[in-house]
Amino acid sequence: GAVVSQHPSWVICKSGTSVKIECRSLDFQATTMFWYRQFPKQSLMLMATSNEGSKATYEQGVEKDKFLINHASLTLSTLTVTSAHPEDSSFYICSARAPYEQYFGPGTRLTVT
Amino acid sequence: DQQVKQNSPSLSVQEGRISILNCDYTNSMFDYFLWYKKYPAEGPTFLISISSIKDKNEDGRFTVFLNKSAKHLSLHIVPSQPGDSAVYFCAASGGDTGNQFYFGTGTSLTVIP
């Protein structure tokens, strides 16, 4: 099946720094990618929808200036957590939409100290 | 507004018995449904899907049933195995949702050896 990769898989950063997470669709082109966040013992929370060549659409309550999304090509979307704080520590998962399915990346564990 | 709901946050089943995970949705325009399985610290993986033209889809030990009039779908796992222990998400799309899948809150399945 189609594969979506994420890099890095785990990152630790200091409070106040920025972290970039990459999401790649490896064997298909994805005009739409999604970024989710999962808190422990909670569901996936959709943060934003990323469309290639246009601005991302953010869900209500998600700070677009803090979570910068760039969908530069049909196979790459990036999420940058700017000025990270400990409360941003979470598991971030990207997903790419294919015609009949939505493929998920393996996730990125972000820990902000 | 939660358009896809999984009302049971957790379920425990004895190995070898049947696991039944339930999912309800509110949008009658949804016409495609999926189940995902998620292990801790990993991205969700696709399990099985069903379109609204069918009421049952079977793949090995996994069967998904769709009751459109009740806006309800269920995932049956039989026989359940300890390796099935994970969080299961249902998702739905269609109609005016565009590219977006709406996810339920997940059900944590524990299969007891």
Characterise this structure:
The complex is a heterodimer of chains A (113) and B (113). Chain A is built from no helices and 11 strands. Chain A has strands at 4-7, 10-13, 19-25, 32-38, 44-51, 57-58, 67-73, 76-81, 90-98, 101-104, 108-112. Chain A is globular. Helices cover 0% and strands 53% of the residues of chain B. Chain B contains no helices and 11 strands. In chain B, strands 2, 4, 5, 9, 10 and 11 form a 6-stranded mixed β-sheet that branches. A 5-stranded antiparallel β-sheet of chain B has the order 1-3-8-7-6, with no helix packed on it. The termini of chain B are far apart. The interface between A and B is medium-sized, with 24 and 19 residues.
- Following the backbone from N to C, one meets helices and strands of chain A in this order, namely EEEEEEEEEEE
Q: Helix coverage percent of residues of chain B?
A: under 10%
Sheet bearing the most strands of chain B, described?
A: 6 strands, mixed
Q: What average pLDDT do the residues of chain A reach?
A: 88
Order of helices and strands of chain B: EEEEEEEEEEE
Secondary structure category of chain B: mainly beta
Could you tell me which chain pair has the largest interface and how many residues each side has?
A-B, 24 and 19 residues
Note the main sheet of chain A.
7 strands, mixed
Per the principal axes of the C-alpha atoms, what is the gross shape of chain A? Answer: globular
Strand coverage percent of chain B? over 45%
Radius of gyration of chain B: 13 Å
Number of helices of chain B: 0
